[in-house]
Amino acid sequence: MKDIIELLWEDRGLLDKKEYSDAVLKTIDLLDKGTIRIAEKVNNDWVVNDWIKKAVILYFPLMKMKKIEIGPFEFHDKIPLKKGFKEMGIRVVPHAICRYGSFIEKGAVLMPSYVNIGANVGSGTMVDTWATVGSCAQVGKNVHVSGGVGIGGVLEPVQASPVIIEDNVFLGSRSIIVEGVKVEKEAVLGANVVLTGSTKIIDVTGSKPIYLKGYIPEKSVVIPGSEPKKFNAGSFNVPCALIIGKRKESTNKKTSLNEALRDYNVSV
Fold this sequence. Notes:
The chain is an alpha/beta fold and 268 residues long.
C-alpha cells in the first residue's frame, strides 16, 4: 500500500482507478483501528510515516460531502464520525466528537472534546472538556489533557512531525501545544503554557538559563513566562516557557497540577 500511495501522490489522476482509491480507503481503515499510525517511536526516536499522512490528504478528494444526522443534530462533512465506542471500551461523554481515521485506545475517556483524523490517543488518557486533539497528533498513555487544551494538528508539509505528547504527561488548563512540539514523558505543563515551534523554552533551575526549542524534557515542570525582546519601537516582553524543576519520583503520576507545582512554591 505504501508504494501505491506514493505513486498516487505523484499522480492524482490515478484516484479514478479502483486499485489506488481502495489503497487509500484501506490505509484510513487501518489508521482508524490503530494498526498503523502517523508517527511511532523506533529505538527511542520518533519517526514520521509520511506516506500515511499522504493517504489522509488523498482521502479528502476521494470522499463526497454528505449530510450526517445524529438525533436532532445535523452535520455536513466529507468524513464520517467514529463509532463503536462501547465495543472498543472507551468512555465518550456527550458531546465528544471523534472523526473516523482517529484511533482511541481502550480505557481512554473523552469528555466533550474533539479528536481529528490521524490522531492517536493512548489508554488511560483523559481528554477533558473542550480540549482538542488535532489531526495526526500523538497522545500517549495516562495523559491528562485538561479543559480547553489545544493540541495542534499538522498534515502539510507531509515530512513535518506532528505534536507528540508522551506517556504520563499532565497538560494544564488552556495550555497550547502546536507546530510539532514534543512533550516528553511525565512532564507537567502549568495552565496557559503556550508552546510553538519557535517558543523559547528556558530551563531556570540552574545558576544560568539553558535555552531549548521544540521539546520539553521528560519530568519537567513548566510554567508560562516572558522575556524582553527588542523591536524597532522599543523593548517588549514576549511569551516563553520556564522549566522550574523536575517532577519528583515520590509524586504519583496521576498527581494534580497543584500538587506538582507546590514543590516549587508556584500557583497557577
